[in-house]
Amino acid sequence: MTPDRILALFALLGLAAVALGAQEPASSYISCLNAEQSQDKQTVYSDFVSGKPVRLRLRKAWWSEKPARVPLTVTTGLTSSRLEQLAHQCASWRGPLSAAVYLVVKGDGKGGVGPEGEKALADAADAVATFHAKSEVADGCQLDVSLLYEVVADDVMTLLLPINTMRNYALLQARTRLVAMIDVDLLVSSSLTDWMEVKDNVDYLQRECAAKRVFVLPAFETPRNPDAAAAHRMAEQAVASDKKGLEALVSKRLVHQ
Asked: Which residue has the higher pLDDT, 118 or 232?
């Protein structure tokens, strides 16, 4: 998706929200984005090689009805098989989270997806809907999530993931001025929510971003461990630590950059 197309979509989203009035905002988002996509095109390998824009269709979007706790949205892109990682990320972050979920569907050769593709889309939509419903009653993030799919004609295209396009869709869906793009397999430090609840900190970030400055959040990981449960516990300990506690974990080589 090109920058001018993204700007155009932002404008269209605003117009759609006004026109639809009482209709849920997610419906405006769906109709607006799908209006920009051809419904009878399938991606072929030559499209990828020649650098043509990815053709994604928005199946459905689910937006949180919980009020945003802080004015910063974490954005992420993922495949439909990684909802478990999204659950952990949502639990670690108590602010808004915008996620774009990707599903690739083999076309039927006639511009459609066929019975198998429709079943895959329906199953994915059910899984995301159930996931979102659980997030709405959990003490975690305020989740906005969209399910996007790509219809492909070539088998090789089922192996490729347009991750940057997914990140762009997640950014487009964010409803706050401040955003932080974070991969879905990363957890968010618990101190970030607390820090963002201080007005002076928010004002500082907004001033710096208005001056076209960006902030890079440091990322840490646990050493390889065949005991996945132990690795997860260490990651959760690191997430719950303050800066001094994290420094101690690094010095003990329990986590590293």
From this structure: 118
